[in-house]
Amino acid sequence: MTERTRLLDTFLTLVTTDTQTKREGRMADVLQARLEAMGFAVMRDDAGERIGGETGNLIAKRKGNSGSAPLLLCAHMDRVSPGTGIRPQIKDGVITSDGTTILGADDAAGLAAILEGVQRAIEQGVAMPDLEVVFTIAEEGGLNGSKNLDFSLLSAREAYIIDSSTPVGSIIHQAPAQTKVTYRVIGKAAHGGVEPEKGISALVVAAHALTRMKLGRIDPETTANLGVARGGTATNIVMETFEMHGDVRSLVTAKMDEQVKHMTEVFERTAAEFGARMEADIEFAYGPVNLSPDDTVIQRASAAIRRAGLTPSLRATGGGSDANIFNARGIPACNLGTGYRGAHSLQESLEVAELERIADVVFALIVEYASA
Fold first, then answer.
1. Cis bond leading into 130, ω under 30°?
2. What is residue 1's predicted lDDT score, i.e. its pLDDT?
């Protein structure tokens, strides 16, 4: 079996292994077996117990022979829905699902690339650094696996997350902080057909607030979105409660905080104007990634990408990843492009050539660290 064939076979095995957030047990079993077959010592932390999942993060270590600094590689084991019963299709060098599910390249591409890159380095007998591989649970929906990762088990001081939907060769050196917001407008119920004037519609209050509020793209570094809303109990009752959930993101934490303050104050003023009440639940989710092009983690990523025959490209993103948590815990980490497209949708796809390129980059990272 050639390296390319093995890589594709690994990817297809992973996307057809059912996994969901907090239900990554089967995927963890498959990955642990592969890692142990390559000589890794593998353990699972207690993150699953902390968040109500069925397994913890996989933490794998393999001793190197180069005497250089350890290299940490990371990808996540869960995927969004609908992500079970995936039936992958390959046509003209592009992998897709059959259209009834996502493909799951987010993040099976990262998992497969790490496994192949390490396997290739072992088989070719190249000098290798100490390797640490972390496969996280519950990345989707809040980075809860890495938030609960036992960082005391890690010795690497730099990390590479293989999880960006950007083209292979991309290095995400900036990513936003995020705050989750919930706003609850509480009005007064009344019969909508008999005495609506005695009620205070929470929906109307919220609608007025939203017209006074800055949302969407606030500036080049900041966004705000209210994406989920619910309220009401019957068509003939003036809506008493209306609830909205969203998030605010920015590359600059102070700007994020200012936007949250603005939204909260608008809801407070508008509710008071209509004689209603407002409740807010504000939760800081994670901090930003702000890496310099001169940082070692970026320099080595760039060198590895060039070693793989590609051109490195520094990029900022509007999404979070496990890199946000690693950086917050004092381990510089950048997210690398894997080339999949249409993430979180039934149109998700991945070119076989991009899968091969990200595996080449992982192999090149191993060689780069061994020679550093």
1. no
2. 73
3-175+288-371 matches 177-286 in fold:
no
Which regions of the chain does DSSP assign to beta strands (E)?
41-44, 58-62, 71-76, 89-91, 94-96, 131-136, 159-164, 170-175, 177-186, 216-219, 222-231, 241-250, 277-286, 289-290, 313-316, 333-337, 349-351
Say how far apart CA 268 and CA 238 lie, in whole Å.
20
Joined together, the tokens standing for residue 317 give 């993103």
Domain residue extents for the chain: 3-175+288-371, 177-286
Nearest to 169 by CA among 334, 332, 345, 3: 334
Short-list 184, 315, 319, 183, CA closest to 249: 319
Structural element, H or E, at residue 145: helix 144-147
pTM confidence score: 0.93
pLDDT of residue 185: 98
Contacts of 189 (CB under 8 A, 6+ apart): 199, 237, 238, 239, 240
CA–CA dist 242, 204 (Å, integer): 9
Q: What are phi and psi of 186, to 5 degrees?
A: -120, 110
Q: Do 280 and 182 form a contact (C-beta atoms < 8 A)?
A: yes
Q: Is the pLDDT of residue 291 over 80?
A: yes
Record the tokens describing residue 106, joined without a space: 């987010």
Kindly indicate whether the domain formed by 177-286 is annotated with CATH number 3.30.110.40.
no
Q: How confident is the model at residue 161 (pLDDT cuts 50, 70, 90)?
A: very high
CATH architecture of residue range(s) 3-175+288-371 = 3-Layer(aba) Sandwich (3.40)
Annotated catalytic residues are 78, 139
